[in-house]
Amino acid sequence: MLEIDPQSTDSITSVSLDAYWMPFTANRHFKQNPILISGAKGAYYSTPEGEQIFDGLSGLWCCGLGHGRTEIVDAVSKQIAQLDYSPSFQVGSTIAFELADRLKQIAPENLNRIFFTNSGSESADTSLKMARAYWRTKGQASKTKLIGRSKGYHGVNYGGISVGGIGGNRKLFGSGLDTDHLPHTLLKENAFSRGIPENGVALADDLEEIVTLHDASNIAAVIVEPFSGSAGVIVPPKGYLKRLRELCDKHDILLIFDEVITAFGRTGQAFGAQTFDTIPDILNIAKGLTNGTIPMGAVIAKDMIYAAFMEQKLPEKAIEFPHGYTYSAHPVACAAALATLDIYEKDQTYARVRELAPYFENAIHQLKGEPNITDIRNIGLAGALEFTPKGGDPTLRPYEIFRKCFAAGVYVRCGGNTIQIAPPFIAKEKEIDNLFNILGDAIRATAS
Ligand code: PXG
After folding, report:
1. Domain boundary residue among 346, 365, 396?
2. From atom 10 of ligand 1, which residue's Cα is the shortest distance away?
């Protein structure tokens, strides 16, 4: 690890670590024990000391194609020279329409209307506002309650943390929106399942209880991740999402899929909706849309939702959905997205994920029996290991494992009581082997 004085500028990188208030980071600890990255190419980061680190989480789940893809670099460079910025309120850049049309071509049935954001958090809050406003346009203004799921993650804005189900992300921030939560789907009897677990479809029926409690006339939408990523790859049981879909239809509740992690290949298809054969009314994306290169997200709505806004009895010059961001449909992000979508198609990326997924599944489940592991979960090229607490702290062991792995040349993510792994789609079998060898060593080395 680097020795850097947090107050000093006299270091290997000539930067002071003082001013940057880092997100989701133990700042005091980090600044005493920094982990710095200065470059990336393909599946590897490089450190200021020149070490190569395998990117075992595809950035933060966003760089499936690996880093420094020349096609994206070229497209972005060209675009920034041609049109670096243009407003997207009352004016539209041609490239934004091009990208929306392209997304419409690949999105599942009837998901044809694309609203651009700049992140997963903005996609979450946009989709929740869209759902509430939709019911209002339909004359059902009492339908405002939003239903999330325990352990769900929908970013960090107020809507997202209100429907989110990770307590630590909410408790400092006061009251949020009017929400309720479905139970999570993490069942003891599913521990060490390979892929989609067998038990627990009935957990979706808890929506009936929520409806009984609040009445469907007060509920706007249910939002779930097809699989929960941040909580440590919690894959829903067989039939669960289909059952949720049926219940939402039965009670006239919109179903939102937060596909910020699951879209663009992670489960072996363009969308988790396809892997789980369940079509939501609204589908949120970000991350893999631009391979992580330029911030961008989007909310993809069914035609019927767009139509409800357009059919409002408003003068033609009235704005139907008063929502949007300065950087919605940023032209440089659009260029990055189009180049990224080209690569997914040209390289047949999703087929490659399906091909590599069984290898990944075998490799991760070979860690069963290593010390302190209480569960191993996987789907596509995503996996997580769950650990027993250390000294009463559930997060300590994963943190130590993460640090050991990084020192040994592999980046994996620690989150709560889990280690999460999501290798780039371009990873080779031997790189997967190396990742799990290093992870196994780290698990044993931190076992005490
Ligand atoms: N929804 C989902 C499902 C996500 O996974 C967001 C929304 C928020 O996206 P932005 O772009 O606003 O951060 C996310 C983000 C992890 C990890 O380690 C996951 C995310 C971000 C950082 C870390 O699991 N997901």
Report:
1. 346
2. 120
CATH number of the CATH domain containing 440: 3.90.1150.10
The pick from 166, 224, 260 for probing ligand 1's pocket by mutation, whose C-beta has the most ligand atoms within 8 angstroms, reads 260
Helical residues (DSSP H) of 107-239, grouped into ranges: 120-137, 158-163, 206-214
| CA distance linking residue 29 with residue 149, whole number of Å | 32
Span from the CA of 45 to the centroid of ligand 1 (angstroms): 20
Same domain for 201 and 94: yes
In the predicted model, is pLDDT for residue 3 greater than 60? no
Structural domain includes residue 216 = yes
Question: Can you tell me which atom of ligand 1 is nearest the CA of 258?
Answer: 3
Name the residue of 126, 127, 153 whose CB sits within 8 Å of the most ligand 1 atoms, as the mutation to test its pocket: 153
Distance 161 CA to ligand 1 centre (A): 12
Confidence of residue 448 (pLDDT cuts 50, 70, 90): confident
Residue percentage of the chain with pLDDT more than 90? 95
pLDDT digits (tens, 9 = 90+) for 219-253: 999 999 999 999 999 999 999 999 999 999 999 99
Cβ burial of 110 (10 Å; 0-12, 13-18, 19+) is: middle
Domain-terminating residue out of 311, 346, 381: 346
Contacts of 26 (CB under 8 A, 6+ apart): none
The boundaries of the domain holding residue 47 are 35-65+348-445
